[in-house]
Design brief:
Blueprint lengths: L6 H11 L4 E5 L2 E4 H17 L7 E5 L4 H12 L3 E4 L6 H11 L3 E5 L3 H6 L9 E5 L13 E3 H4 L11 H4 L12 E7 L7 E6 H15 L6 E4 L6 H13 L2 E4 L6 H11 L3 E4 L1 H9 L13 E4 L6 H10 L4 E6 L8 E3 L13 E2 L3 E6 L11 E8 L5 E2 L3 H7 E3 L6 E11 L5 E6 L3 E4 L2 E4 H9 L4 E11 L3 E10 L7 H11 L8 E4 L13 H9 L5
Parallel strand pairs: 1-11, 3-4, 3-5, 5-6, 6-7, 10-11, 12-13, 13-14, 26-27
Antiparallel strand pairs: 1-2, 8-9, 9-19, 14-15, 15-16, 17-18, 18-21, 20-21, 21-22, 23-24, 25-26
Helix pairs in contact: 1-2, 1-3, 1-9, 2-3, 8-9
Length: about 525
């Protein structure tokens, strides 16, 4: 039997193979494959009725929830493109993404009404809003183009799904695997988010490769506490529905005890983590009171785990295989370190994953010798199609390969290879900060700081942190004739930035060091930071 080529076809295939199997656990909700498939069918039908066509963008602005998963697959079945946003984003970024994506529909929760209203000017006359939550809480000013999620599905029982005569025909637009499945917005060095264009073929290829080396099977139960706006979290759902497993989804990792109880209760076999989660787990002193013996594997990406953390995790979970991995949104995943290599190469992120080719090159595009540092270049079906509305950036990042139609991804990250071909991460080429498993644009934080009345200039750095990998340090210069209180700046940041973007350290200075060309000299700022001094 031929394998499906479109992302949503795998949900339908699993629903045919395992109709009554629990596919998704969200708190007290337990969704079967049949119910998820039918609900997403019906949502596709509703999207078609309100004018969504093939290739239209639909934004999902929700917490991790069953509604997010149903939206993801309903959008794809309608032939549209899903855009899942971090549930903590502020109106400024929502406004930008609404405009940049040209979204036809916004699916959100009534709890986020204030943020949506603040971004209202970016909504076009043709943009519909589907509100999850109490219908009575839908803002009156939005009622003319609003639908209630509860009203759409009011006569449906999640346990039994929809009867054929209830759901109507889903849109089932004619698609091929080159069509766009998703825009995944990630921080850009220009200061504004950039939308990575992911075709069905790219998503399926990346997921297949990861499933292959993790050796996933239909019996696997994966615990996901990572946001679905983060590709690492998103792919836990996509992959599980491809191999017919179960996803246990939580909103966050704020309560480690609940997390551990969930592993024990649901008999979780797969655990994707980021370094922050590892650090929190290692601080707990009572792990032996939980039965975690069901865990078959633990995976880590987003940032490298400290070697000492790797050793401790291996000691704590001797029965689980630990996969250290490297990837970036533009190709999802690049490499993994086979668990049997951890003792010999704990600081390595391994070799290329299946169906992916990598090289480390110099400034002229020539492969460097083992031990030398160069930029990592990726070749494979997992390489995405480019950046939305950013042809110049696409041309710089996604370049012509050796053969016509072949695309190479220049990662912007520096690596070295050892004599056996294993990769070691050295540093980032651009001005990005990796904190709490998220990529943060220094420019974006600087832009927001400079919008505060009383701040004339701002410069942001990532500084090392044992738990978070990096944390944000901001230097700000007061405007003329204005005093600047640190607590006021912090309150402003908490109001205008997502939590992971709020600077941990804040330094108020009279001026910033500049290069001869008038640009902020961040190398000098790094020296001040390293010396623990301020000018």
């Amino acid at each position: 039997m031929f394998s499906p080529t479109l992302v949503h076809e795998y949900l339908s295939r699993s629903a045919s193979r395992f109709p009554d199997k629990v596919a998704l656990v969200c708190g007290d909700e337990r969704w079967t494959y049949r119910a998820l498939d039918q609900y997403s069918d019906y949502l596709a039908h509703v999207l078609g009725e309100i004018g969504v066509h093939k290739g239209d963008r639909v934004i999902v602005f929700l917490d991790n929830s069953s509604e997010t998963v149903i939206s993801l697959y309903g959008i794809l079945k309608a032939g549209a493109v899903f855009v899942i946003l971090n549930s903590a984003i502020k109106s400024r970024k929502l406004k930008y993404i609404l405009r940049d994506s040209g979204a036809r529909v916004l699916i959100t929760h009534t709890r986020k009404a204030r943020t949506v209203i603040e971004a209202e000017e970016a909504l076009s006359e043709n943009t519909h809003i589907i509100w999850v939550g109490n219908s009575s809480d839908i803002p009156k000013r939005q009622s003319a183009r609003s639908l209630s999620w509860n009203s759409i599905f009011q006569n449906v029982d999640p346990a039994s799904g929809l009867a054929e005569n209830e759901k109507g025909d889903s849109m089932r637009a004619s698609l091929i695997d080159l069509d766009i499945a998703a825009l995944i917005y990630t921080s850009g060095s220009s200061g504004e988010p950039k939308g990575v264009i992911s075709g069905h073929c790219n998503v399926v290829a990346a997921a297949r490769s990861i499933i292959k080396y993790l050796e996933n099977i239909s019996d696997d139960i994966v615990l996901n506490v990572l946001p679905l706006s983060f590709d690492y979290g998103l792919y836990q759902v996509i992959m599980a529905f491809m191999f017919g497993g179960t996803v246990v989804m939580e909103k966050s990792f704020l309560y480690p005890v609940k997390f551990l109880e969930c592993i024990e209760k649901e008999r979780v076999t797969g655990l994707p983590i980021v370094p922050t989660m590892a650090a929190m787990l290692l601080k707990m002193g009572n792990l032996d009171t939980y039965d975690l013996g069901s865990l078959r594997y633990i995976s880590n990406t987003a940032a490298a785990l400290p070697v000492e953390h790797i050793r401790k995790i291996k000691d704590l979970f001797p029965h689980a295989r630990l996969f250290s991995m490297y990837g970036l949104t533009e190709c999802k995943r690049v490499s993994y370190l086979p668990p049997e290599e951890l003792d010999r190469r704990a600081s390595s992120v391994g070799k290329a994953m299946p169906n992916c080719e990598i090289s480390v090159v110099d400034g002229e595009g020539r492969e460097v010798a083992p031990g030398e540092v160069g930029e990592l270049v990726i070749r494979g079906a997992n390489v995405m199609q480019g950046y939305w509305n950013a042809p110049e950036l696409t041309e710089r990042t996604f370049r012509q390969g050796r053969h016509p139609g072949e695309t190479l991804l220049y990662s912007g990250d520096y690596f070295r290879k050892d004599s056996d071909g294993f990769l070691y991460f050295i540093g980032r080429k651009d001005d990005m900060i990796k904190t709490r498993g998220e990529r943060v644009s220094a420019r974006e934080v600087e832009n927001v700081l400079c919008e505060m009345d009383g701040i004339a200039e701002a410069a942001v750095l990532g500084v090392p942190d044992d738990i978070l990998g990096q944390v944000i340090k901001a230097f700000v210069v007061p405007g003329q004739k204005r005093s600047l209180a640190e607590q006021d700046v912090r309150r402003y940041c908490m109001r205008c930035l997502e939590p992971f973007m709020v600077p941990k350290y804040l330094v108020i200075v009279e001026e910033l060091p500049k290069t001869p060309h008038g640009k902020v000299d961040k190398k000098s700022l790094e020296k001040w930071t390293n010396k623990m001094e301020c000018p």
